[in-house]
Amino acid sequence: DRRSSRYCLIASTAGGMDIEEVARTAPEKIITLIIDSFLGIKPYHARRVCAALGLQGKLIDEGIKLIQSLYKILLEKDCSLLEINPLAVTKDGRLLAIDCKINFDDNAFFRHPEYKTMIDLSQFDPLEIEARKFDLAYIKLDGNIGCMVNGAGLAMATLDVLKEHGAEPANFLDVGGGASREKVAAAFRIILSDKKVRGIFVNIFGGLMRCDVIAHGIIDATKNITPHIPIVVRMDGSNLEEGIKMLAQSGLNVETVDNLKAGVQKIAHIMDKKTKVFKNGHIN
């Protein structure tokens, strides 16, 4: 639960595939327990949940055991989600978990090296697999504006502002706070490898991340590829003037701006013009 920064237990007798619809139309059918990190789930917590689900007799004891076991697994395995859906009562009066879904917290992988062997790479986009090699936080999206940002919060804000201006991000990509020149170059090459990308927006706040390192990485990534797509760069912070000068002398189709709003407006305007030209070209 984001508001309380705690794990929560959610249960309902009206679950299934349409639980979001239940939450909207009949929220009273959903039981939520915010779990105290120090207390955990005590038997009396679990008993209340079981009673609210309509369990009776020995099923309550089974339900308490099940709920406490789930919480133990959640902590031991560093899960971000542990879902039993559906939980059934059998004809002979037993509780049975029919299906289970577990999400592991990526940030806890260092405590569970065995998890890496469980990853099914067929479920990832090839660019996401490439990004993992460089420890880049990259998620492929459906838009046409490639984004390179430092910091997850700034990256999310950048995507939001792009959407507000009618632009469609092609990815989420956080290079991190102190990325090397090589890591920045790898990130930029991944963006360029996306065939849907028709423009690139770089948004960097250079505290730990120096602006000249970003510029070096962009230039290194384009040594063997000369991208003809527009690139808009918003940088601020350490070694800003040096970074801007390097990009200006690179020969790339780069425009630099002073702030996030100006950068988003610039790339959105460029992409809008490209779209109109493309459509008119087909009409003619």
Number of domains: 2
Proportion of residues in β-strands: 15-25%
Q: What order do the strands of the largest sheet run in, or round the barrel if closed?
A: 8-10-11-12
Number of helices: 9
CATH topology of the largest domain: Rossmann fold
Look at the structure and give the CATH class of the largest domain.
Alpha Beta
The CATH homology group name of the largest domain: Succinyl-CoA synthetase domains
Biggest beta sheet attributes: 4 strands, parallel
What integer value in Å does the Rg equal?
25 Å
Work out the number of β strands.
12
Tertiary shape: elongated
Helices and strands, in order, run as EHEHHEEEEHEEHEHEHEHEH
- Helix/strand/pairing category: alpha/beta
In short:
Helix content is 40%, strand content 21%. The chain is built from 9 helices and 12 strands. The strands form 5 sheets. Strands 8-10-11-12 form a 4-stranded parallel β-sheet, with helices on both faces.
